[in-house]
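User: Some background: our group keeps a shared notebook of sequences we're curious about, and every so often someone picks one and asks for a predicted structure to add to the entry. Today it's my turn. The entry only has the sequence so far, pasted here. Could you supply the structure so I can complete it?
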Amino acid sequence: MADSSSQASELSQTAQEYINSQLELEQEAREALPYQFDSCTKPLGPLRQSLFSCLTCNPPPSSSEPYTPAGVCYSCSISCHGEHQLVELFNKRNFTCDCGTTRLPSTSPCSLRTNETGSKGGVHSEKPASENKYNQNFRNRFCGCGQEYDPHTEKGTMFQCIGLGTVEDGGCGEDWWHPECVVGLPRDWNKKQTSTKNSDAKSLNGLPNGHPPEREATHAGDHTANGDVEQVARVEDDDPPIPPGFPAEEEFEHFVCYQCVEAFPWIKRYAGTEGFLPPIHYKSQSQATDSDGADKSEEALETSKKRKADDIDDTSSAESSAKRQKGDEEAVVNGHSNHETNTSPTVPPCRYEKLPPSPTGYVSLFLKEYFRPHLCRCSTHFPLLKAHPALLDEEPTYSPPLSRSSSPAPGSVGSRSLLERGEAALSNVDRVRAIEGVMVYNHLRDKVKDFLRPYAESGQAVGAEDIKQYFERLRGDQEAIKQAGEGVNGEGGGPDGDGDSRREQSGESQT
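Assistant: Of course. Here's the predicted structure to add to the notebook entry:
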């Protein structure tokens, strides 16, 4: 009996504890879903916005069969597809929400937009925006490796390309990349490296097995952003280290993958210049497994670095001139060369002609935060930038309105907590009726306290059946309720009850 009473006491909670727990849950929900989700962004037109792909409504085929991808906005991902399997795509530019269009089945309508009858919801089979661009991300495949993303098993940080080109242009379409795939290493490069070091450690004398690899893991993690030794020591359990050759996160702000660089090769010449890190070369996995290919790749990398240092030498001036001429030919616009354009005294000097030659091979570029002022904006090369607004200025990203915080600020009642809604409703009630309600509540509170007092004094837990029986009896106590109402009416001091009370509390004088 004592055990059951103790267990019941542990499961019970006061009204204040319940209210606090509800407020905590609502606060957690606001943190997980910080924005309001009551309006679709489709009427706003193309935006750079956070997108989601619904694999429940639009599952991709297992093979390379034709697939019609679709993306939905933040609000539709919650209100229309909240219980579906979603892939978070993060921000993508110039995109209009596909929810309620022919890209999704008619059985999955948009519940946020207004339909033809003027009522909200049930919108389907509308024409999608023709300007939308799609890539493999919409079928839950990412990076140059094309691997499916599983948030429960994926480790490490992925980086989004600034997306100079769409898939149709030969670019990646703002894809997300694994650092190891950018430099051409296999996904499990760290495991293979650790396995090799473990086998080498067994041949060391005077040291326990496994100790040298742990030290090596620390050195391998020197490329991480903070260089913290303890964090690197836990790298095998947590995130993998940054692969060799990949820059630290704090060294760059934007990233252009080798696919987009190859689609627009004129940007190669900015590698290593002001606002740009040195080029990061991609080495294919076939080269990584073949020793001869690896040696050639290393030689090419050293040659590229040496060529950059030798650009100022007279011995390489002829080669530099030839490469610069080739780059200038690629940048000819409207039939005019760079030299011809710069002969005009009104045109600012061309920075592009002074850039070093383009690095050879497949390279990715890493851009610093202040790279934009160092791009050439002469009349010849500005059209190259104009086609890519992200290079000219920071792109604005649309965010839905924030949900209301737990503070009782004025706003939509539907965005507040349950307690705030009750307080707001009470504040809108007539003052006299509000006081009458409070008086009835006090009467009910006193009766409940009288009911609970014996249990509190004896330490006995209150069972659900006891409470149920009590309120059944209370609902039949018509006499007590009548007395409570008469007591409230008597507060006004007159036989007409609320007549004098109403006038007094509304500020009217008595005669």
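Suggested note for the entry: The CA atoms of residues 183 and 282 lie 4 Å apart. The mean pLDDT is 75.
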